[in-house]
Amino acid sequence: MIAIIDYGVGNLFSLTASLRYLGADTLVTSKKEEIIAADRIILPGVGAFEDAIAKLQATGLVDTILAETAKGKPLLGICLGMQLLFEESHEYGVHQGLGLIKGSIASIDEDLQKAGITGLKVPHIGWNALSFADGEPLFKYIKQGTHVYYVHSFYGKDCGESLIASSMYGIKITGAVRNGNVYGTQFHPEKSGAAGLDILRAFMEV
After folding, report:
1. Is 90 annotated in the active site?
2. 159 flagged as catalytic
């Protein structure tokens, strides 16, 4: 069973529908005991980092998430859910994350300006080709250059060995990260058509 954590920051319908289409037993929950009983965890999220981490902390589930991932339970963070996995975010101030992935969350717009790149709109919205490391279990059903769907203004950087996939948008955008059994995708698999379904199917098998 896959537990999708509900902490009040996102529409969970399309994600739940995608997983159920794949035949997954899913449960949207904010209950500690149900997360502990699950085989896998998904942490979704849309919106601002500061608000999201505060709401997640308010559920009392942070310790549960950390304890379950420490036991080896697979976790997938999606979009803002991926960003929450990082050590910290620089989105309108400095905010501490869960510390499961090395690195920080930074502004795409600011880094485009630093690189002297103009003419690209932020938020980064739309389909973009994905380049990923060979042998990564999350991508075993897709091909290099497969397009996935992004909607974001901030991105993960300085991830080191945790970086497993990226897309180019003037600068290299972190597309996905992994630290052991902890995975994160900046793009939305549930909005990425057949390729996204293949990525979710792969997560069901890790």
Report:
1. no
2. no
